[in-house]
From TrEMBL, chain A:
InterPro entries: Bact_response_regulator, CheY-like_superfamily, Sig_transdc_resp-reg_receiver. Signal peptide: none annotated. GO terms for biological process: phosphorelay signal transduction system. Keywords: Phosphoprotein. This is Response regulator receiver domain-containing protein. PROSITE patterns: RESPONSE_REGULATORY.
UniProtKB/TrEMBL annotation, chain B:
InterPro entries: CheY-like_superfamily, HATPase_C_sf, HATPase_dom, His_kinase_dom, PAS, PAS-like_dom_sf, PAS_fold, Sig_transdc_His_kin-like_C. The lineage of its organism: Bacteria, Pseudomonadati, Pseudomonadota, Alphaproteobacteria, Rhodobacterales. Keywords: ATP-binding, Kinase, Membrane, Nucleotide-binding, Phosphoprotein, Transferase, Transmembrane, Transmembrane helix, Two-component regulatory system. It comes from the Bacteria. Residues 641-748 form the Response regulatory domain. Its EC number is 2.7.13.3. The chain crosses the membrane at residues 21-44, 56-77, 84-106, 118-138, 150-169, 181-201, 253-271. Residues 418-624 form the Histidine kinase domain. This is histidine kinase. It catalyses: ATP + protein L-histidine = ADP + protein N-phospho-L-histidine.
Amino acid sequence: MGVARIFIADDDEDYLAAFRIGMESIGHKVFSVNSGAQVMDALRDGHYDIVFLDVVMPGGGAISLVHKIRLEYPDVLIVIMTGHSELYNTPVFTEGFRLATARIKKSASLDEIKAMLSSLLMPK
Amino acid sequence: MSRRSEPHSVWGATATVDTQGITALLVGPVIILAGLNLVFGWLLGSEVFLRGLRDLPAMVPGTALCVAMLGISTLLSQSRKLSIRALSVGLAIGADLFAVLAFVASTGADAPVGGDRMSLATLVAVLCLSAAAVASLVPSLQARRVHEAFATFVIVIALAALIGMVIDLDSLFRFTLFQGLSLPTAISVLLLALAAILRRAQGTWLGVITSDALDGRLARRYLPWAILVPFSLIELSYVMTDRGVMDGRQRQLVFAVFVMIGSCAAVVRLARYQADVARRDFRSEANLRAILSGLDEAIFVLSETGAIMGRNQAAERLFGDRPQEVAHLLSIDLHDVPRRERPGSGRHPVTRALAEEGDVHCGWMDADGHERILGLSSFKPDAAWKVLVIADVTEPWMLQQTAALTERADALAQVVSGVSHEMLNVFGVINMSAGARTDPDDKTAAIILKAAERGSRLAERLQRLTVTQNGAVATVDAGEAALAAVELARRTLPDGIVLTHDPVLDPLPVAASGADLELALLNLILNARNAIAEGELGFGQIDVNVDSEGEQVRIHVIDDGPGVTEEVLERAADPFFTTRRGVGGTGLGLAIISTMARNAGGELRLSSAPGKGFQACLALPRPQLPSTRDQAALPRLGTMRLLVVDPDPEFRAILGDTLEMLGADVHRAGSMDEGCEIAKRLPDLSVLIVEEDLPEAEAQVLRRRFPNAGVIYLAGPAQSARKAGWPGLRMGKPVDMALLCNSIHLVAARASGASCDEPL
């Protein structure tokens, strides 16, 4: 696994900072925005290997973004980060999550994310 | 009169006629007659006003003045003012004295022989009438109907005189009593006597005749015959004797036979009539009894003196047939709810209910030792009696209490859920930061990571417990759930109670939510703990085992506690049945577990016997293969314009995103003001989804601002039940999307229908 270009959208600045430190510590490059409204523009400006989306953000969360992203970038890897997964355990979300490549908990440890990235980014 | 004590008013001899008007009608002519007699008769010499008919005696001025005074006295006695009533008594007594003087003057030695004079009958009548006037003003005499006796005597004299005048004047005047009695006088005293009775007619014979009730109708129907038949018989026999058809003895015989036949016929007729009435009464009473016996409320009919005159079957079921009067009801131990205090003196719930203080609620321990909640009220259908209604409101009361508890628990769950979500985010930051250590042997980072990991697990468990999984087909491993419940329960067990559990190694998935199953098992274990701890020994063992049988997975919770009787076992899973009401049991635990099991397609089996412990077996089906039916069932919301008003930004965002996914045009607002600003630009808003605890989220306000939009209220944390009566649909959080979509379609259809057509 080489250096991956990781895009993350999350309105929690603390988590963004921690995520950046964590990802950079294992050698990846992180680009971030803190609202759903900025996501589509930011994605057009650069190429990314994997996109992390928070479920709830001002300007649209993962549920609506995942559909828009899939339309424009059918092949990009999308990971949805959930804090409240059970609370919104409805068929709509299941459907929404199905378009995403993977789903992790907000509380996941760096090792868990590392393991997930390794399996997702493994050259086919 | 025995009739008066009968509770049924059809028999009551109540004069319902306007006695004041009739008194005036009776007394008015008397005063006018006296005036005409004095002015036109004595002053101007008109014979008609003096004696009525030629050859009859004249009404002397003394008599005219006396009857006028009595007439005025009668009119004045109707006044409410004491002074005027006193004046009326004075006039009546004055008439007495004046009559005595006038009688002496007109009949004494100085009186002209053969001239007009006051008759003895007039004097007696005036004395009796003034006595009647006084008697009718004294309550104790009035109650004994003394006035009726005096006035009736006057009526007898006046009628005898009038009949005598019609039949044979000479014979009449051969009686000393009637010598010199004039026609106007006879008529005047008759009218005055009638007025004297009518003034206080209650219970008198005239009261019966004039009554609107059954007695009056009956009397009026037969009275003419009772007068006419004997009178015509006498006349007929007199004529026949006169013509020589029969002699005196024969006349006596024939008269006796006819009178006997007439009286017997009248008696038989009356008896038949009374039997008809009694039969009708009995039938309506039987109907009433049937209606009352079908009521769940206990009904006591109380007399003025506090005796229990009647009760229905529910009343006998409640308190037996021992209570015979209010004092017995007052000796029943009723306590205040919810504090269970004995009421202070004079504050007994029955006293309060009878004082018509509205609905009074109280608690009562029944014969089996269960606490029942009673609602008492009373009403007064009649002046003579009162009805006490006692309703057993235990179940609604418990439901209300439980609903209040559930609402508080729901509100708490929402707060806990929000907090645990935040905690998960915080642990995510810690995990990530500590995980990014550069030195793999950094012990501090390792400790932080381990603690954060534990924290995340706790927060996740907390979140799972507070979540209701709407719409999702959940599965859980029965073995894991049992292990989790055992671990949680173990911490609550006192010394002396051993909890054993053999963990299962193979996965045993069941179709149930993990949180529900864990809670259910926890509840069963705690029930077993309570049974053992409250038993005679106070120590014992609880076994929790999991096995499978065919398509079912079974979880057994078995204790060696005191067990229960067959009767208790049968009702154990009924809602609100508890043997632990006094120590905090709600009687809902087993009922909820049983419902949960049935909803999941399984069942809760219970078995027990006294001294043989209690065995609970929760049997749940293995999960079916996942189906896509649930996704397909979600209705699309295409072209609908929705406004979501909710102060919680996260909820607002996620609900909005979800609704957009289903095709709706969604607008979001954090407050009603913001919502109104947005709505100004959206004239064709279909549905408003609003958090009901928002200020201004009142039906009338919303209706005015969004007349064409349907409204869905989302229950806020305060869960205010007061708004339950609002027009619009209500639903709780977390939101079940299928339910919300169906609700949106429902209110949108109604709203568009209302804007096109006239409302029904």
